[in-house]
Design a protein that fits this description.
- The protein has about 775 residues and is of the alpha/beta class.
- It folds into four domains: about 160 residues, no CATH class; about 100 residues, Arc Repressor Mutant, subunit A (Orthogonal Bundle); about 190 residues, 3-Layer(aba) Sandwich (Rossmann fold), CATH 3.40.50.300; about 210 residues, 3-Layer(aba) Sandwich (Rossmann fold).
- About 40% of the residues lie in helices and about 20% in strands.
- It has 27 helices and 26 strands.
- β2 and β3 form a beta hairpin.
- The longest helix has 26 residues.
- The chain is globular.
- The N and C termini lie far apart (about 75 Å).
- It binds adenosine-5'-triphosphate (ATP).
- Adenosine-5'-triphosphate (ATP) binds next to α15.
- Keywords: ATP-binding, DNA-binding, Helicase, Hydrolase, Isomerase, Nucleotide-binding.
- It is an enzyme of class 5 (isomerase).
- Its EC number is 5.6.2.3.
């Protein structure tokens, strides 16, 4: 429940700080009690709580807040500020008081008076405009004058930046973000190159930066303006649509759409700027394609490294067939399984190649092959594949990794071997490109197996391959029919399509033998077969028809039934394709929290924006936190909430357990998590759940696609409970042709290998 609005945005409150209740240095979330001096509100009280993203308020300063009055469900009436400005002292007395305050060390009452006597009521702006005016103050030493100017600049810096940004129509929160990104440089950057903010400040798009640009005279076809639009289009295409490059003609058209204004910006002008950007190497242009620089080089890096790793495949140790069969037989015996021909082929290929790809849908035996490969590998190489045999310093020869924490955990559970996220394996240090392992510090080991490769994007794949040494064999495992990676590229399908790597596809379904309708249903979707609600149903798959408005109720009832049968929130995952709407992730999460973890008098909770986090809530991590070994997509449970008086830091702390790893969050860190009862299908990739509940309705239309439904359905291990409109499901499964991403990996791989072969032929190496 959010508070009710009482007044409109135009209200203001002028006041002085009484005391600071809360201020977070990083997020700037502030709660302060103020003494009201003046207000446009009809207020009886003379004290008021003000909340907002604010610079830390000082004592003895008058602030003017703009915003609205809100009724907080727990804390009562509060003024929510979305603009703040410090009232610069205007009177002689006010300025003397200000200059002689503790902020200006070494300036006493006398000196302050002298300054004001000399410079008048405008003293502060006069000093800021030109610090040399202080030379006119009799007896004021240079170091004092310098210090006054410096403090004033710092004090007024935030104000000036904020004021300027308010003029451009920025809200307080975004204005503070700009200030935090640049501090006192903000004014300079805004004046010199406001478009820089698009890259540096989250939340600033082209239109916002352009509003400032217009004030600086960067109008119409100014090259800086056009280049910013081009760069913005290119970034959006990569980040939102997953393209590695954008056709130049599309860049021109999309940029033209952004560059609105009285003067039409011509295609020629845009094209000329694009050529310049290419020459300046700000972006990469190749034929009629334009790339972000990092993506161009990442793709290139993948080609180079795959070429390196595959070419040395000829030197991979070969084993006579008889030895292989013997090792395989022993493995089959110890695992109690008889491998199918395609599975045997997968193991044999992975053993004899530098790089191999193994694909297959759910239940086709990918994990079973990984297990077999590790064991056969150990037998043939005479190595132990028991991690207990490797003490501290000895490197276990087989590396297992996956893109998400959940997928890595699943891999580890199903193989009994250590597995980690790819980020952790590569020693990710928290910012893009900052990895411990790479070209100059490569991984140790002789075989690396990477699961869920369909989720790996172009940047991460490049970083990974750089870190693989020449003598390490690589097995990529994945299901190419799932959703592609969140980041740009479609690594797995491009590598497969290039046909330069031995690939084994598993198609026979083994889990079907155990009577799983989920598996059959998944494969029906994958193959595009006609789906029927009645025929698809089974003991582990049910469909509950309902209209869009009934979705929340249907989901609640399904979950309620599961709870009655002894399942808990940990076993049940509701999946929805979008966040907004009554049947979206946000609304369903609120409803499910009340079902699974309702508020109780004794149960602690912390309010954060419109949601409350309660003791016992299931939550989802939204960002990588390598220091704590918690990654985007990990699920955890709130196991403790401490009140400020119970913590050393004197602030509310929330402890979340991620499968035993306990991480503490302060209130401002809570933007790193969300409730996990319902999550998007994209976020569920790489995870499996005993029960999946998935509504499918026409309202999701824009999102409905075959690979989305397929990914959602294949998350269910024991039960898949669908609800909604069967026709919407059929519609989705029929849509699979418009999601191609623009990449050049496949072509460049083919080209590199053809050139490589020619060179070998020329030098006569190819024949051996
Ligand atoms: N050759 C085989 N003979 C008998 N059972 C098999 C064989 N291969 C796999 N299975 C069984 O089929 C089931 C699915 O296998 P596995 O878990 O390896 O598939 P998967 O492709 O990894 O599936 P998912 O992607 O859903 O995890 C398991 O119970 C496994 O024991």
């Amino acid at each position: 429940m959010t508070g009710t609005e009482e007044t409109n945005q135009a209200n203001h409150v002028k006041g002085e700080l009484l005391h600071l209740i809360y201020h977070n240095e990083e997020s700037l979330y502030t709660v302060a009690k103020i003494k009201v001096i003046d207000t446009s509100l009809d207020l009886s009280e003379r004290e008021l709580t003000v909340v907002g993203i604010l610079p830390k308020p000082d004592q003895d300063v008058t602030y003017l807040f703009h915003g609205e009055m809100k009724e907080h469900p727990r804390f009562g009436r509060q003024f929510k500020a979305d603009q703040v400005r410090k009232e610069v002292p205007q009177t002689k007395q006010g300025i003397v008081h200000y200059l002689s305050s503790e902020r200006f060390p070494g300036i006493g009452l006398k000196t302050a008076e002298k300054i004001v006597d000399e410079l008048g009521d405008n003293a502060l702006s006069a000093i800021l405009a030109d610090k040399a005016v202080l030379e006119r103050v009799d007896g004021l030493k240079q170091d004092k004058a310098d210090s006054i100017y410096k403090v004033l600049l710092e004090e007024q810096g935030v104000e000036q930046v904020l004021l300027k940004l308010y003029d451009y129509g920025f809200g307080l929160q975004l204005a503070m973000k700009v200030y935090q990104a640049y501090k006192l440089d903000a004014m300079r950057i805004m004046e010199e190159n406001p478009y820089q903010m698009i890259e540096d400040v989250e939340g600033i798009g082209f239109a916002k930066a352009d509003a400032i640009g217009q004030h600086q005279g960067l109008t119409g076809s100014h090259p800086d303006r056009i280049k910013a639009a081009v760069f913005y289009v290119l970034t959006e295409q990569s980040m939102n649509s997953g393209h590695v490059y954008t056709p130049t003609q599309n860049v021109i058209l999309e940029s033209q759409r952004l560059l609105t204004g009285p003067e039409r910006v011509s295609e020629d002008d845009i094209a000329a700027c694009m050529i310049e950007m290419g020459e300046e190497q700000k972006v990469m242009v190749e034929e009629d394609r334009m790339y972000l620089k990092t993506l161009y080089f990442a793709e290139k890096g993948i080609v180079t490294n795959l070429h390196r790793l595959i070419s040395r495949g000829k030197s991979v140790e070969e084993f006579p067939e008889s030895e292989f069969l013997k090792a395989l037989g022993k493995t089959e015996e110890s695992l109690g399984i008889e491998y199918a021909d395609s599975q045997k082929e997968a193991i044999r290929t992975a053993l004899s190649s530098g790089v191999t790809v193994l694909t297959g849908g759910p239940g086709t035996g990918k994990t079973t092959v990984i297990n077999g490969l590790v064991e056969v590998y150990g037998r043939l190489k005479g190595l132990s594949v028991n991690p207990d045999d490797y003490k501290k310093d000895a490197q276990f020869p087989v590396i297992l990794a996956a893109p998400t924490g959940r997928a890595a955990k699943r891999m580890s559970e199903s193989t009994g071997l250590p597995a980690s996220t790819i980020h952790r394996l590569l020693g990710f240090k928290g910012s893009q490109d900052d990895f411990e392992y790479g070209e100059h510090h490569q991984l140790e080991g002789s075989l690396i197996i990477l699961d869920e490769m369909s989720m790996v994007d172009t940047w991460l794949c490049n970083q990974l391959l750089k870190a693989v040494p020449d003598d390490m064999q690589v097995l990529f495992v994945g299901d190419e029919d799932q959703l592609p990676s969140v980041g740009p590229g479609q690594i797995l399908s491009d590598i497969l399509e290039a046909g330069i790597v031995p690939a084994v596809q598993l198609t026979a379904i083994f889990r079907q033998a155990e009577g799983s309708s989920i598996i059959t249903f998944s494969h029906d979707i994958k193959e595009g077969r006609k789906l029927s609600a009645e025929e698809s149903a089974g003991s582990d798959l049910r469909f509950f028809p309902c209209g869009p408005l009934q979705v929340p109720d249907a989901v609640r009832q399904i979950c309620q039934k599961a709870v009655e049968r002894g399942y808990t929130a940990r076993d049940i995952q509701v999946l929805a394709p979008m966040y907004r709407g009554d049947a979206g992730v946000t609304a369903l999460n609120q409803m499910l929290q009340e079902l699974f973890n309702p508020s109780k008098e004794q149960k602690r909770e912390v309010a954060f924006g419109d949601v409350a986090y309660r003791h016992g809530d299931m939550v989802l991590q939204l960002v990588n936190n390598p220091e704590e070994h918690v990654y985007n997509g990990d699920r955890g449970e709130i196991v403790a909430i401490f009140l400020p008086k119970e913590t050393e830091q004197n602030e509310t702390m929330i402890v979340i357990s991620f499968d035993g790893i306990e991480v503490s969050y302060s209130k401002s860190d809570l933007n790193q998590i969300t409730h996990a009862y319902c999550c998007s299908i994209h976020k569920s990739q790489g995870s499996e759940f005993p029960i999946v509940v998935m509504p499918v309705i026409r309202n999701y239309a824009r999102m409905l696609r075959k690979n989305l439904i397929y990914t959602g359905v294949t998350r269910a291990k024991d039960f898949l409970l669908l609800c909604g409109d069967w026709r919407a499901l059929e519609y989705a499964v029929g849509r699979d042709d418009d999601l191609v991403r623009n990449t050049t990996l496949c072509d460049k791989l083919k080209q590199a290998f053809m050139e490589g072969t020619h060179q070998h032929e020329k030098t006569g190496v190819a024949k051996d």
